[in-house]
Amino acid sequence: QQQVRQSPQSLTVWEGETAILNCSYENSAFDYFPWYQQFPGEGPALLIAIRSVSDKKEDGGFTIFFNKREKNLSLHIKDSQPGDSATYFCAASKGNNNNRIFFGDGTQLVVKP
Amino acid sequence: SVLLYQKPNRDICQSGTSLKIQCVADSQVVSMFWYQQFQEQSLMLMATANEGSEATYESGFTKDKFPISRPNLTFSTLTVNNARPGDSSIYFCSSRDRGLEQYFGPGTRLTVL
C-alpha cells in the first residue's frame, strides 16, 4: 500500500501562474512532511517542510497548506518561473529522527514562458 | 544541513561485473541511507546503514546483491554485485543531521550493458 500519493503526475502552467501540487497520505501517525525539488541530473533538494501542528508554512514563493483531518496537503508555487520546472516529491514520516521517510511518486512541473 | 559527495558521478559497466559507489558526508552522521531511482520515477529506499553495524535492507534488496559498508560516521560504500541491465538507474546516498531534515547526494548514474 502506497503511503504517500501525489497528483497530478505532471503539470504545465504558464509563467506567473500559481502551480498547485497535491499530496495525500495514509498513516495518521505521520507528522512531518517535507517537499523535495529535483532537477534533471541532480539529487533531490529539501525545499520546504511542515509539521502537523501547523496548517500553513510559507517560504519565499512556496507555501504548504496542510489538512490533518483530510490527511492531505498541497504545495503552492506562486508566480511560477521557468526555473521552477522540476520534479517535486512530497514525503512523510513520523516525527522522530529514527523513522524512515516515505516518498510519493512525484509531480513533474513544467513552467512555460 | 549535511553535504554529501558521491563518487563516481556516473559509471558504465558490463553485465556480471561489480562496481562500488562511495559516499562521503561533510560531518558525522548517525545513519546513511541508499536510494535507487529509475528514470523519472520515485525514490526507492534500498537500505539504512549505521556506523559499526550491519545495514538494514528493504524488501527487494539484499546484502548479497547490494552490500553496504559503513566504516565510520562520515563514509559509506554501496557495491552492486553481478550487475544486470535492470540495475541501470541512479543511486543516491542520503543522511540526516540532528533534526528531521534529510539530505541527498548528487547521485551516481549507473548504466549496465
Largest beta-sheet characterization of chain A:
6 strands, mixed
Count every helix of chain A, treating DSSP H or I runs of 4 or more residues as helices: 0
**Structural class, from helix and strand content of chain A?**
mainly beta
* H/E topology pattern of chain B: EEEEEEEEEEE
Strand content of chain B: over 45%
Largest interface: A-B, 23 and 23 residues
Topology:
The complex is a heterodimer of chains A (113) and B (113).
Chain A: E1 4-7, E2 10-14, E3 19-25, E4 32-38, E5 45-51, E6 56-59, E7 62-67, E8 72-77, E9 86-92, E10 102-103, E11 107-112
Parallel strand pairs in A: 2-11
Antiparallel strand pairs in A: 1-3, 3-8, 4-5, 4-9, 6-7, 7-8, 9-10, 9-11
Chain B: E1 4-7, E2 10-13, E3 19-25, E4 31-37, E5 43-50, E6 56-57, E7 68-72, E8 75-80, E9 89-96, E10 102-104, E11 108-112
Parallel strand pairs in B: 2-11
Antiparallel strand pairs in B: 1-3, 3-8, 4-5, 4-9, 5-6, 7-8, 9-10, 9-11
Describe this structure in words.
The complex is a heterodimer of chains A (113) and B (113). In chain A, a hairpin with a 2-residue loop joins strand 6 (56-59) and strand 7. Chain A has strands at 4-7, 10-14, 19-25, 32-38, 45-51, 56-59, 62-67, 72-77, 86-92, 102-103, 107-112. With 113 residues, chain A is mainly β. Chain A contains no helices and 11 strands. In chain A, the strands form 2 sheets. In chain A, strands 2, 4, 5, 9, 10 and 11 form a 6-stranded mixed β-sheet that branches. In chain A, strands 1-3-8-7-6 form a 5-stranded antiparallel β-sheet, with no helix packed on it. In chain B, the strands form 2 sheets. In chain B, strands 2, 4, 5, 6, 9, 10 and 11 form a 7-stranded mixed β-sheet that branches. In chain B, strands 1-3-8-7 form a 4-stranded antiparallel β-sheet, with no helix packed on it. Chain B is mainly β. The relative contact order of chain B is 0.34. In chain B, strand 5 (43-50) and strand 6 (56-57) form a beta hairpin. The A-B interface holds A 32, 34, 36, 41-46, 49, 87, 89, 93, 95, 97-98, 100-101, 103-106, 108 and B 4, 30-31, 33, 40-43, 45, 48, 92, 96, 98-107, 109.
